[in-house]
Design goal:
Radius of gyration: 20 Å
Helix content: over 70%
Number of helices: 8
Order of helices and strands: HHHHHHHH
Number of strands: 0
Mean pLDDT: 87
Length: 160
């Protein structure tokens, strides 16, 4: 919370400096950013709804039963699929990973789940396509899946 207050304070100070230097440019920039926010808002609300539903349905105990110690490669595939559904911020992912490990999930499965949760987002791909283009969105998501699987393989080799 304190970090947010600090960031908002810094942003307000810089906005004040910008406004004193050139009122017209600052107003134009604020209007432009408001329009951009308004255009992204429907997609953002849909993503938040989807993430909320996914997190309420996929409880840590359910996920642990799917990706437990004995799930092996199939557990890694399940983790990749589950983690690829939505982008989730790290402040949610790390405690979730800790809870999963405490509930009996294996480290490679949790590693790929955490990695894909933070880097792959099938729920956000439509917004990403609008912003960056189709080829970039697919290339980024595919490369994130490959890197997550590579990360899980490294964890599997090191930990066993």
């Amino acid at each position: 919370m304190i970090n947010g207050i600090i960031l908002y304070t810094i942003a307000t100070i810089y906005l004040g400096i910008s406004f004193t230097k050139d009122k017209h440019k600052t107003k134009v920039a604020l209007l432009s950013s408001w329009k951009m926010f308004r255009n992204v808002l429907p997609d953002l609300l849909a993503i938040m709804l989807f993430v909320g539903l996914a997190l309420s349905l996929l409880t840590p105990s359910l996920i642990s039963s799917i990706i437990g110690e004995n799930s092996g490669l199939l557990g890694i595939i399940y983790s990749t699929i589950i983690g690829s559904i939505a982008l989730v911020p790290s402040f949610i992912v790390f405690p979730l990973g800790h809870t999963l490990v405490q509930n009996g999930a294996a480290l490679p499965q949790v590693a790929v789940l955490m990695s894909t949760l933070m880097s792959v987002g099938l729920a956000t791909i439509s917004m990403e396509q609008k912003t960056f283009g189709r080829s970039f969105a697919y290339a980024r998501n595919i490369s994130a899946i490959i890197m997550s699987l590579l990360f899980a393989l490294i964890i599997w080799v090191v930990m066993t």
